[in-house]
Amino acid sequence: MAAKRGWAAVHEKKLKKAIKKAHKAYLVIVALALVIGAAGGYFAASVLCKNDCFEINGQKETLVRAGQELKYKDEGIKYVSYGKDLSSSVAVTTNLIQDQDGYYVGATSDATEYYIIYTVTEGRCKGMTLNRTFNVME
């Protein structure tokens, strides 16, 4: 029985040494895997999102004199998410009136502000907004 204890003790010491050596190698492998994974993820994200944008086509702000006609054909926006054009999925809110020809019109008798708000409804920019304003000045 004493021989077993001696034998077990020798193997236990060898096992502990092997674990210590393996432990260092394991940490190096895990650290290397994390670095490679992070670099790969960054590269993939930069390639996928290279052309992504959310921007207004045309002017963001227009000044109109009181009494001058306010009639505007919307130039829309450009929205690309992960390389996919999602411009048609952007919601439009406005306080202007749209006529039968698709033009936005507004009264200009008094100083006021009109707006067109574009809101992203899907993709990675969901909830973001851009504003186009029309300021009627006296």
Structure description:
It is a single chain. With 138 residues, the protein is α+β, with helices and mostly antiparallel strands. The protein is built from one helix and ten strands, in the order αββββββββββ. The chain has one helix at 2-48, and strands at 53-56, 61-65, 70-73, 77-81, 84-85, 91-94, 97-98, 103-106, 112-119, 129-137. The strands form three sheets. A four-stranded mixed β-sheet has the order 2-10-9-6, with no helix packed on it. It is rod-shaped, with a radius of gyration of 32 Å. It starts with a helix and ends with a strand.
Brief synopsis:
With 138 residues, the chain is of the alpha+beta class. It has one helix at 2-48; strands at residues 53-56, 61-65, 70-73, 77-81, 84-85, 91-94, 97-98, 103-106, 112-119, 129-137.
Which key phrases capture this entry?
4-stranded mixed sheet; alpha+beta; 138 residues; single chain
Which overall shape is indicated by the principal axes computed on the Cα atoms? rod-shaped
Count of DSSP E strands?
10
| Helix-strand category | alpha+beta
Strand content: 25-35%
Tally of alpha and pi helices: 1
Radius of gyration: 32 Å
Low-pLDDT residue intervals, each spanning 5 or more residues:
none
Q: If you average the pLDDT, what whole number results?
A: 87
How would a textbook summarize the main sheet? 4 strands, mixed
Helix content: 25-40%
Give the helices and strands as they follow along the chain. HEEEEEEEEEE
Distance between the termini: 106 Å
Strand order of the largest sheet: 2-10-9-6
Give the secondary structure arrangement, pairings included.
Blueprint: H1 2-48, E1 53-56, E2 61-65, E3 70-73, E4 77-81, E5 84-85, E6 91-94, E7 97-98, E8 103-106, E9 112-119, E10 129-137
Parallel strand pairs: 2-10
Antiparallel strand pairs: 1-4, 3-8, 4-5, 6-9, 7-8, 9-10
